[in-house]
Each structure stands twice: as C-alpha cells, then as structure tokens.
Amino acid sequence: MLTIVLASLAIAIVIVLASYAGLQVWRLRHHRQQLSAEQATQRVQQQRSAESAKKNIIILLRVIEQGQILLTEAAIRISAYRMALAEPFAELPAFSVFEQLANETAHIPILDRWQALSRSEQSEYDRQRTVIEQRHSPSISSNAQRLLITLQAED
User: Fold this and answer.
1) Which of 39, 78, 101, 113 could form a disulfide with 109 if both were Cys (CB 3.0 to 4.6 A apart)?
2) Are 101 and 81 in contact (CB under 8 A)?
3) Which helix (H) or strand (E) is 134 found in, with range?
4) Residues 6+ apart with CB under 8 A from 63
5) Closest by alpha carbon to 102, among 125, 71, 148?
6) Spacing of C-alpha 138 from chain mean position
7) pLDDT in tens, 64-87
8) What is the pTM of this model?
9) Is 67 left (phi over 0), alpha (psi -120 to 50) or beta?
10) Residue-number span of the structural domain to which 80 is assigned
11) How many domains does the structure of the chain reveal?
12) Residue 43, number of CB atoms within 10 A of its CB
C-alpha cells in the first residue's frame, strides 16, 4: 500500500513538473515570436525612415543646386538626415563636407536665440556664416552633384 501511495505521489510530482516545463516552453516560444514580430516591425520602420531621409536629402541637394537655400541650413539638415540612412549610404565620403560646414557654423545661434540677438550681432554672425559658406561652396557643389547621382541611382 505504501508503495502505491509513493508511486502515485511520484507520478503526480512528475506530472506537475512536466506541466510546469511545458508551460515554460510555451512561454519561451511565445516570447520569441513576439520578439521576432517586434524586430520585423522595427526593421520596417527603419527602412521607411531611411527611405524618407534619402528622399529629403535628394530634395535638399536639388535645392542647393538651384541656390534656393543657405548652405549652412542645408548642411545641418543633410547631416541630421544622414543619421537615418542605411549603412552603405550613411558612410559615403561625400557627406563629410556637409558635416564640416555644419560643425564650423554650430556656434551660430538659431531660432529663439537668433531672435534674441541685436541687429549688429545678427549681422556679425551672418558675415561669419557667409565667409565659412564661401570657403566650402565649391566642395559642397561638387559633392552635392556626386551625392545626387549616387542616391538617385538607387531609386
């Protein structure tokens, strides 16, 4: 009789442990499926963001060619959009001149800080920006054309 009780107890413990193990396996599979779905969603969002950034950069490069934007503003925007690009494009050397211009003009106040400046301070910063832009203008123009060709070839 005692052996039957012990055997029954052992079988019950095995059933409980097997059920617990089965539950853990199910949870692990469910977690992996969720993680996989989240990663797929994230990849799609990154691809959309990269495509949007690429289109915005192309628009800015065309506007640069037409002379309808300050080179500093374009460089700042292009540098920001570059961060969302897919790997092969983000590393193109032609982007370096835009980074350089953005970095060299980073000290110039923008938005509310610009509005708070006096007219003479604004004029001085405009003069500085113009000098820096003129120094970078030839390389910006050639690199803008190079980037346009490269980015549009991938469309």
Assistant:
1) 113
2) no
3) helix 119-153
4) 69, 74
5) 71
6) 28
7) 999 999 999 999 999 999 999 988
8) 0.78
9) left
10) 2-153
11) 1
12) 10
